[in-house]
Specification:
about 130 residues; 2 domains
Length: about 130
């Protein structure tokens, strides 16, 4: 079991998406990608709240929602851990589903900027290539 630092999460303060949703989506992506493995401990509510300058109740809400979803589990004396999940939880379909909302927002912005799909796809491919 490994312990992760509060820097596991980040927020975009100007985003129209609520902070708690940003954190939930990040946790889902981290688990789906395998960056957070079953049994990994998450940072404490207090640590995350201090690091991101958030109300601890926001972080607590995120952890509780993820626990109800079955992504996290609470262990006495150990805090919140990534729940044991079948490998099917990490399949490509699930991971691509997590990316869809981000791409939908990007598509809306592209439409508002009157950019054609070829330009957008070329830019996205370049960004993906630059990430390697």
């Amino acid at each position: 079991m490994s312990q992760h630092s509060p820097r596991l999460f980040s927020i975009v303060t100007g985003s129209s998406e609520p902070i708690y949703r940003q954190l939930i989506d990040q946790a889902r992506r981290l688990v789906a990608s395998g960056q957070l493995a079953p049994g990994d401990a998450l940072p404490s509510v207090r640590d995350v709240a201090q690091e991101l300058t958030l109300n601890p109740m926001t972080v607590s809400k995120v952890y509780n929602l993820l626990e109800m979803e079955g992504l996290l589990q609470r262990r006495r004396g150990q805090g919140m851990l990534v729940a044991e999940r079948p490998k099917s939880a990490r399949n490509v379909g699930n991971r691509s589903g997590l990316l869809r909302p981000t791409l939908e927002r990007a598509a809306l912005e592209a439409k508002q900027l009157e950019l054609d799909s070829d330009t957008c796809l070329a830019l996205f491919k370049k960004i993906l290539k630059d990430q390697k």
